[in-house]
Amino acid sequence: MTRDTAIDVLDGLDQRLVAALQCDGRLSVERAARVLDVGVRTVRRRWARLREDGTLSVVVPPPVPDLAAVTLLRVRVLRGRLATVAAALAARDDVPMVDVSATGDEISAVAVTGHAPGERLVLEQLPRSSAVTSVTAAAVLHVFRDAYGWRHDVLTAPERAALTPGRPAVPAGELDDVDRRLLSLLAPDARSPAAALAAASGLPDSTVRRRLAALAARGRLATHVLIDARRLGYAVDANLWMRVPPEQLDAAGRALAAHPAVHGALATTGAANLHAAVWLPDLAALYAFVTRDLTGLGIRSVETVLVGEAVKRPGARARYRWS
């Protein structure tokens, strides 16, 4: 999605309906209406409009990679060459996230790097580019919160609990070919109805419904809402690189993960051993976050990098500017 013009922030009800889908991407219209105390026709109409105009989509995210294979990259690039390097990174299947700094001289990226020969190609190629002046790589040691776990903080705790599926009722087990086929069909549109999946897969409608119910009961039907965070009122996106004493790292990471502004919190190798990505309404809120919300967590230092452009985000190529 490309939105370089003025951004229209969604109204309160639309934002609550987006948050409801974050709880359960296959949430029924009737259940959403009942929990949020909204008319069924209103929910149906608004969800349809949000999806049809491209404001949001609900997808089945790709499998979460082995943590040992995830690396955070900070790539310094010569001015005038940044767009080329960012586009090259975004085109790679092993790079699910690419941000460009507001200063226009740094790229932040997540690389999923394997252990077999040739799978670390992105790390080997970057230093060879004449456009790249430096590369810092930090391995992810622990995920406190990722993009898939972030929830827009506009629902009450009882509403969120009522809309969120319970814990898996049965063991997850292994996926068979039919399960994988259905999840593949759901990947671009997790709200596809059973009838459409049956037609696309050649399976009986009853089989599809039974399989979907079984996948959900096993916790295998994870969904993710893709939306430009600026439509939710977040005008500032920032990456924070922090130093925390080892004995306070876990507590600090957990505290950050519980904060509604944090859509990513990771423990990493390197001098900055704690990384957080935040969405906030404005720079005043960012200042308050750094000076107030980070206090008491044992953080020794923090480097704040404003995101100027989101080139790619988990689950989608999403090109939009923050500044």
UniProtKB/TrEMBL annotation:
Q: What name does UniProt use for this protein?
A: AsnC family transcriptional regulator
Asked if Cell inner membrane is a keyword of the record, the answer is: no
Q: Which GO terms describe its molecular function?
A: sequence-specific DNA binding
HTH asnC-type domain residues are 175-235
Q: How is this protein annotated for GO cellular component?
A: cytosol
Q: SUPFAM superfamilies given for it?
A: Dimeric alpha+beta barrel (SSF54909), Winged helix' DNA-binding domain (SSF46785)
Q: Does the keyword Magnesium apply?
A: no
Gene Ontology terms describing biological process: response to amino acid
Q: Which domain of life is it from?
A: Bacteria
**A Pfam family hit:** HTH_AsnC-type
Q: Which UniProt keywords apply?
A: DNA-binding, Transcription, Transcription regulation
Q: Which Gene3D superfamilies does this UniProt record tie to the protein? A: 3.30.70.920, Winged helix-like DNA-binding domain superfamily/Winged helix DNA-binding domain (1.10.10.10)
